[in-house]
Amino acid sequence: MNINLFLTTLYQRRIGMFWFSFGLVAYSWLMAWTWTFIGEMYEELLATMPPEMIAVWAPGDLELGSLGGYFQTEYLGMMWVLIVAAAIIIYAAKAVSSEVAAGTMELLLAQPIARLQFIVTRIAAMFVYAAILTTATFLPIQILGPTYDIEIAGRTMALLYATGFLLISAIGSFAMMLSASMRGGGRPGAITGSLLAAMWILQAITPFVEVAEDLEPLNLLTYWQPGDLINEGVVLASSWWVYGGITVISLAIAVVAFLRRDIT
């Protein structure tokens, strides 16, 4: 890894990193604060909604009136995934392909920086970005929770941090793989974003369409169940394998693809 490139990469992304993180901190605080006066009546509010809509936002057997049900439907479900996915995809999609398209890759590698150093450094910066997004999400809830009558065990918080980080890393790694293989920053981001949108649609229609239910094991979002984690303090064992596997395989392909590609 090249330390100078690593620090430069983080510095160049500082503005986007700040605003995404600031938005997550503000959103986390808002959700914690809202729970103080909506918590007791939340189940009653949900009872006024059509069952089909509830099934879309909180699939499975999640107890919607619980703290976990509240956070999954109002924040940590699809809404949070959209925010963090947008942040990490923007970074990862431009990490390699935009440099090639702009003609600056040759200049960077002439510093001199070896190809392996370059791609490893950009991957390391992606993990830092993912860690910052994860911290901006859960640290406000952890710190402010007791003030707003939100009690989440330390072990459960640790699992939220870990699985959240892995989910962000898996999405970013897939986008990084495409970025290392393609020219132009738009295509990797568009492909990754489109796949996530397709997964969300599949998850939304799973309660009503048998084919979507059959495809659940292939859906990345199936393994992200923060509501159940908050309520029960457990994570699907398959989550670690799926998110970890996607991250490792995608990054391995990204490294090999970048070492072999033409950058001119």
What does this structure look like?
There is one protein chain. The chain has 264 residues and is mostly helical. The protein has one domain. It contains 14 helices and no strands. Helix 2 packs antiparallel against helix 6 and helix 9 packs antiparallel against helix 10. The model has no long low-confidence stretch (mean pLDDT 80).
Give Rg in angstroms: 20 Å
Number of domains: 1
Number of DSSP helices?
A: 14
Beta-strand percent range: under 5%
**Average of pLDDT:** 80
The counted number of beta strands is 0
Question: Characteristics of this structure?
Answer:
14 helices; globular; 264 residues; 0% strand
Could you outline the blueprint of secondary structure elements for this entry?
Blueprint: H1 3-12, H2 14-38, H3 42-47, H4 51-57, H5 67-76, H6 78-95, H7 97-102, H8 105-109, H9 115-144, H10 154-181, H11 186-205, H12 210-214, H13 226-232, H14 237-260
Helix pairs in contact: 1-9, 2-5, 2-6, 2-9, 5-6, 5-13, 6-9, 6-10, 6-11, 9-10, 9-14, 10-11, 10-13, 10-14
